[in-house]
Specification:
mainly alpha; 8 helices; 0% strand
């Protein structure tokens, strides 16, 4: 130890007011609200789950969709009409209460169209395609969540790569019927 005459504590610290008790603590901050990106992924997940449910229901309905060609054509025309209307009428699709109505109408008509088209194809082929779609959707969500900057070409390249790798993986694993 040195015998210097300098105090161990600075003058500002010595002159600071002393508290008998600790100062009151501030309440913990509220959690941040959900970001718009999180809401988009929630809506996308709900749309995919609903579409998957309608797809399952179309297979359990039996031959109704497979024998009725007008149901097939009607579902295509219904979805095409709603999609065109929402694409053309930007004022309708960008206002708050009506954009939610548009999401619901497009989701229901797209799910009906997918279920009707799927009823014309083999069960195994449809669910293999749905599985690949789910892998691609999860990859897109993971890709967009891990990077701050990405453009259309990065997303397209990643989607095509995941698609090719998934189909190659399934081609190796699944038996071939000629």
């Amino acid at each position: 130890m040195s015998n210097s005459s300098e105090p161990l504590v600075s003058k500002e610290t010595q002159d600071a007011p002393r508290y008998g008790t600790s100062p009151p603590r501030a309440p913990p901050p509220a959690p941040p609200p959900a970001s718009p990106g999180d809401m988009v992924f929630c809506v996308l997940t709900l749309q995919l789950l609903f579409s998957f449910g309608v797809l399952c229901a179309s297979f359990s309905a039996g031959k109704l969709g497979r024998t009725n060609k007008w149901l097939y054509v009607g579902s295509l025309l219904t979805f095409s009409g709603f999609a065109a209307a929402l694409s053309i009428c930007k004022s309708f699709s960008q206002r708050h209460p009506w954009n939610v109505v548009g999401w619901v109408v497009i989701t229901v008509s797209l799910s009906h169209m997918v279920g009707t088209i799927a009823s014309f194809h083999a069960f195994n082929h449809v669910f293999l395609t749905v599985g690949v779609l789910m892998v691609i959707a999860v990859a897109i969500v993971a890709f967009s969540a891990q990077t701050d900057y990405y453009d259309v070409w990065d997303t397209l390249l990643m989607t095509l790569t995941v698609n090719v790798v998934t189909f190659a993986f399934l081609h190796v694993l699944l038996p071939h019927h000629h």
